[in-house]
């Protein structure tokens, strides 16, 4: 895979324009199809050298053409191959028709396929271009294959997935491996598509990078290369005051743990100083649990105004365990000129008047980071949450523009979006990160990076990636306390 584009995500429409541009440039488009099919054949032989039979399911378009090349290559390698096709192959056009003509194997109608023990299916029916529910003939075959637990290698994308949104369109194959070309598509990283793709192999079939780059927008997979240049460094001259001061707001005495997790994570990620701003009634509870994190009594907006007189208090986290209501809204709005992470209760507090929050942070550079899970996103952006036409990427970006904030739309496929159009999709988080307190740790990590001077988008992206990395290092059965000790800069 070409390193220049390993993080790019191109929609099926954008990839179609890449294919058209490649053909207009004078490239042999059938030669690209030949390379694609040969790559799928090589993957099938590598992964399943003992297959009793390779079953190639070919569709009516170019994905089916890739399938015919694959079938011919597998047969030439000495493998047993059967072809089942959707539609009349005499109606194929262009490169797909050429691929069919070069494949001299007999085939049968798709609905005639009955799985055998020892089969390996190569799914080349639709690929990434599907945008409507699969026809019944395909749905029935998908159901038979899935019930029989036949291994599936998908060409470009498991048939039945929407390549733009990752949603299942009626029914979809569950692949063990997917071979795609030039770049990944959104459905390779968005759920449920990511789960149905298995391992994903990106094969460079030779389209020039200048052509691919012409369609590559601002949507990428999250990785250190996207934010490393803004990551805080520690020189010999560094001291605690130069590394920023993070403040985390604590809830009442019976709800202090979430804020302490955030504070500890902010300190662990490198903030020079961390203060837990606590109600007076919770001071004793918090003091009994704190060492390196400082403690400050702040009960009301007046106390907060005095605290804000010190400009060295440059980054804030509010929400974890803080409580829902007017006091939370007042505290959040008082921070409108600072770098702020709003999480949990602070997000929910604005469900009835989200514009009050958005307007407060609307001017200048974006300073606000919102970290909603699915339910919290729906409370702030109910119209976006219910819009089935949009992908999670598109919903997060629309929310970022509306809120003038960086959106960390959490989940196994967390999406980080900025108002300027940049979007990253995170794919390194293990399933066991879904545990109590994990989101509080993430909020503290982002806040700690903001305190050290990272711009909001880069701080959010780095926090999400390093959170996933820490979860992997901590291993199955982690607790949030263990997660914090696994954070590495």
TrEMBL record:
Q: Which GO terms fall under biological process for this protein?
A: metabolite repair; nicotinamide nucleotide metabolic process
Record-given protein name? Bifunctional NAD(P)H-hydrate repair enzyme
According to its UniProt record, which cofactors does this protein need?
K(+); Mg(2+)
Free-text comment on the cofactor: Binds 1 potassium ion per subunit.
Q: Which family does it belong to?
A: Belongs to the NnrD/CARKD family.
Q: How does it assemble?
A: Homotetramer.
- The segment(s) forming the YjeF C-terminal domain are 223-489
Give binding positions for (6S)-NADPHX: 62-66, 127-133, 156, 258, 321, 373, 440
Residue intervals of the YjeF N-terminal domain: 15-213
Lineage runs: Bacteria, Pseudomonadati, Pseudomonadota, Alphaproteobacteria, Hyphomicrobiales
In terms of Pfam families, this protein maps to: Carb_kinase (PF01256), YjeF_N (PF03853)
Q: Which GO terms describe its molecular function?
A: ADP-dependent NAD(P)H-hydrate dehydratase activity; ATP binding; metal ion binding; NAD(P)HX epimerase activity
Q: Where does AMP bind?
A: 410-414, 439
Q: Which organism is it from?
A: Rhizobium terricola
Sequence positions that bind K(+)? 63, 123, 159
Q: Which reaction does it catalyse?
A: (6R)-NADPHX = (6S)-NADPHX; (6R)-NADHX = (6S)-NADHX; (6S)-NADHX + ADP = AMP + phosphate + NADH + H(+); (6S)-NADPHX + ADP = AMP + phosphate + NADPH + H(+)
Q: Which superkingdom, per the lineage?
A: Bacteria
Instruction: Spell out the InterPro entries in the cross-references.
Output: Carbohydrate_kinase_pred_CS, CARKD, Nnr, Ribokinase-like, YjeF_N_dom, YjeF_N_dom_sf
Q: What does this protein do?
A: Catalyzes the epimerization of the S- and R-forms of NAD(P)HX, a damaged form of NAD(P)H that is a result of enzymatic or heat-dependent hydration. This is a prerequisite for the S-specific NAD(P)H-hydrate dehydratase to allow the repair of both epimers of NAD(P)HX.
Q: Enumerate the UniProt keywords alphabetically.
A: ATP-binding, Isomerase, Lyase, Metal-binding, Multifunctional enzyme, NAD, NADP, Nucleotide-binding, Potassium
* EC number of the protein: 4.2.1.136, 5.1.99.6
């Amino acid at each position: 895979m070409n390193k220049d584009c390993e993080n790019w995500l191109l929609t099926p429409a954008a990839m179609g324009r890449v294919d058209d541009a490649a053909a207009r440039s004078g490239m042999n488009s059938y030669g690209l199809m030949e390379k694609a099919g040969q790559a799928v054949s090589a993957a099938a032989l590598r992964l399943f050298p003992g297959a009793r039979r390779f079953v190639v399911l070919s569709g009516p378009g170019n994905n089916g053409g890739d399938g015919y090349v694959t079938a011919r290559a597998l047969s030439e390698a000495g493998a047993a191959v059967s072809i089942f096709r959707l539609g009349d192959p005499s109606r194929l056009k262009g490169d797909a028709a050429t691929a069919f003509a070069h494949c001299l194997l007999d085939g049968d109608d798709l609905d005639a396929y009955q799985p055998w023990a020892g089969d390996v299916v190569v799914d080349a029916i639709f690929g990434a271009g599907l945008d409507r529910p699969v026809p019944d003939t395909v749905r029935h075959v998908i159901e038979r294959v899935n019930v029989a637990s036949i291994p599936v290698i998908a060409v470009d994308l498991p048939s039945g997935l929407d390549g733009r949104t990752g949603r299942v369109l009626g029914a979809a194959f569950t692949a063990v491996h997917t071979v795609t070309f030039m770049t990944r598509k959104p459905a390779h990283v968005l759920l449920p598509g990511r789960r149905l793709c298995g391992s994903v192999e990106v094969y460079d079939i030779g389209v020039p990078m200048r052509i691919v780059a012409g369609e590559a927008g601002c949507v990428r997979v999250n990785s250190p290369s996207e934010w490393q240049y803004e990551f805080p460094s520690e020189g010999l001259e560094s001291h605690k005051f130069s590394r920023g001061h993070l403040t985390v707001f604590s809830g009442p005495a019976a709800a202090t743990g979430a804020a302490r997790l955030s504070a500890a994570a902010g300190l662990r990620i490198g903030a020079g100083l961390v203060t837990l701003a606590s109600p007076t009634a919770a001071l004793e509870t918090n003091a009994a649990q704190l060492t390196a994190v400082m403690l400050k009594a702040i009960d009301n907006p007046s106390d907060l105004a005095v605290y804000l007189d010190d400009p060295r208090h440059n980054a804030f986290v509010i929400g974890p365990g803080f409580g829902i209501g007017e006091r939370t809204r007042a505290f959040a709005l008082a921070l409108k000129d600072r770098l702020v992470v709003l999480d949990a209760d602070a997000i929910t507090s604005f469900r009835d008047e989200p514009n009050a929050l958005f307007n407060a942070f609307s001017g200048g550079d974006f300073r606000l980071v919102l970290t909603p899970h699915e339910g919290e996103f729906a409370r702030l952006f109910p119209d976006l949450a219910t819009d089935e036409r949009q992908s999670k990427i598109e919903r997060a970006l629309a929310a970022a523009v509306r809120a003038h904030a960086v959106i960390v739309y959490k989940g196994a496929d967390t999406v980080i979006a900025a108002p300027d159009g940049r979007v990253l999709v995170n794919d390194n988080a293990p399933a066991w990160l879904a545990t109590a307190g994990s989101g509080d740790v993430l909020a503290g990590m982002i806040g700690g990076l903001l305190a050290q001077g990272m711009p909001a988008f880069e701080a959010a992206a780095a926090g999400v990636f390093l959170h996933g990395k820490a979860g992997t290092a901590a291993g199955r059965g982690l607790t949030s306390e263990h997660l914090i000790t696994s954070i590495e800069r």
